[in-house]
Amino acid sequence: MQKQSITVLKPSAGWTGFDFAGIWQYRDLLYLLVRRDFLAQYKQTILGPAWFVLQPLFLTVVFTLIFGKFAQIPTEGLPPLLFYNSGLIIWSYFSHCFTGNASVFTANAGIYQKVYYPRLINPLANCVSGLLGFSVQALFFVGYFCVYKIFIPTASHFEMTSAMLTIPLLIPLVASLGLGMGLWMSVLTAKYRDFNQITGFLAQALMYATPIIYPLSEVPEQYRFWASLNPMASVVESFRFALLGKGSFSFHLLCYSTIVAVLLLLSGIYFFKRTERRVVDYL
Amino acid sequence: MKESLVIQANNLSKKYRLGTIGMTSLREDLSRWWTRSKNGIPKHGFDQAGIDPTRMINDHEFWALHDLNFEITRGEVVGLIGANGSGKSTLLKILSRITEPSEGKVKVKGKVASLLEVGTGFHPELTGRENVFVNGAILGMTRREVDKKFDEIVDFAGVADFIDTPIKRYSSGMTVRLGFAVAAHLEPDILIVDEVLAVGDLRFQNRCINQMKSIAESGKTVLFVSHQMATVENLCKSAFLLNMGQIIYSGKTSDVIKKYREDMEESANLPISQRMIREGSGKCKLSGIEFRNDQNKVVDSLISGKSATIKLFFDIYEEITAPMSLSLGISNSTHVRIAHLCMKTFGKWILPTSQKSFQVNLSLSKLELNQGKYYVTSFLDDESGQIIDWVTDAFVINVLQSDFYGTGMVPPTSQSIFLMDHSFSF
Q1: How many CB atoms lie within 10 A of CB A31?
Q2: Which DSSP letter does residue B421 get?
Q3: What is the pLDDT of residues B172-205, one digit of tens each?
Q4: What sections of B96-201 are H helices per DSSP?
Q5: Domains contained in chain B, CATH given
Q6: Which of A4, A36, A280 lies closest to B134 in CB terms?
Q7: What distance in Å separates residue A211's CA from the closest CA in chain B?
Q8: What residues of chain B lie within 8 A of the CB of A33, using their CB?
Q9: pLDDT at B38 over 80
């Protein structure tokens, strides 16, 4: 008979670790949850997964009309569609990780009361499924980019830069920021339902505080420091700089964002794990 | 831990808080904090209804489990028996890692699968096939394991024709069968099962029990909770009896069940209002009963075949805002449920009242029970389904034999529970 591992169930306190082993053991569940989210979201819709691309595209068009045409907010000489779309796709990934995880405990209460598995699987699955959407949207961005380059040569004073190489680092940074904030929010919503109302509002407010509908360079000098305190600001600017060659790329600000992300993520996991141990007793 | 042991608990305790701390609104917590800081006295408006004073730790916490010590050896099939609120579910939740103990510890050897519900995580929009994989993974199987057993699972559930249909189109029976089928094909070292067998039709229930039996016979360790004594007796060689958060008896299943029945009988002799083992919000409680015979005289026992009235008295402790419904479950002396009388079926409701008490009269035009003792469980809930007062075996109806059919003879008492009007012809 094979040697069976012994699990000791006892009251735990303090930092209980990330439980890599447990999550690895349930990796298939993570995969299946991502798949389930994807499938369930587009079942019984006519356009199906096309919504992945259409949603940000509609928003881009609305932004182009309202902020570009009516409010005439400058886009650093970039075609408005590319300007808004680049900001929106990276933002929607952040927003997916943040708002999608804000109600993890309340949304899964029924399951958590009946079955054990590492609870962090749910937020992680959510981040992975967000990444899926982001990848498709990024691919379509490249498409829009090419269309502009080929058909509207007059507008082609933009190009991808070598900062593209940082994108593989920007993505985990965005995921960590979103996940960290999402975990914090999930802990709060588990305790107080009030925070459910705040999540949506907070996400929206943060979006306007982030240079998505305006470039950071348009922010008046005296406020720019404060605008840069938003850890997503430098990320969006760098992402846009990488793709379109306009915007700003500040190594220092990115370091700052990374520090914030790590702190948010670690503290988020700590409080998430703490809540996870007690939450079934009062959900 | 000895080689042969798979579960070993030492001084295992779990405390719970009364009321709904935690899932509150921020406003409530702030106002509580405000009154506390103003008056200097922590104020808890919790209802301690239904909890024995000996289980209270302080005015807002109680022991759901207290100081449990037990061992289970490999291959044992153990039944957990106890009244509502005795701590069975809490123990299962700790063993299946859903909640942590407050004190003490349990060592568990090997892979545990807990079946506290079937079909956990089923998504209505997904097909049966997709749900089998997700559900299997939630229960701890890998994709490969599910894949290997997929045909068996579908076959067991009998939903082969619908496996690629979204389960929102399934009948509730099919959904439950599929859920059980996945769970039945887990291969854990320890299986924990909570009364999920009470689902599906009789044929499927029998199949479930057989499946459980074959799991038990294959040398797996099984922990089984059920109110169906017959099932426990059928499946388990040994059992634990839980009472008020403690294991008060353990041993051979038949002995434990006997002890449990004796205890229940003893508790049924306590005045109803003093009964501690009850569930519900306690806004309103059953406080007494009265039997009246066909001459409207108060009596101790009722006579088979005669009309009778049972008056149930309730005391109101907190304002009742929603209409309430009473149901009574009648069980025979071996605790098999034989009848269920429910107000809802008649569209009748007890309306909110400003009085401190009220009574409900149950009229029986002809008592169709044979001689014997019958246990009545009283269940009061409101329109929204919130349980207000639930007392298992709240009182006993003592039925005396009589000339039921008017033939001058008494029907045999050992042959049946029910008597029904009938005639023979040639």
Answers
A1: 15
A2: -
A3: 888 988 998 898 888 888 888 886 655 667 777 7
A4: 128-138, 143-157, 172-184
A5: 5-64 (no CATH), 76-265 (3.40.50.300), 272-400 (2.70.50.60)
A6: A36
A7: 33
A8: 134, 137
A9: no
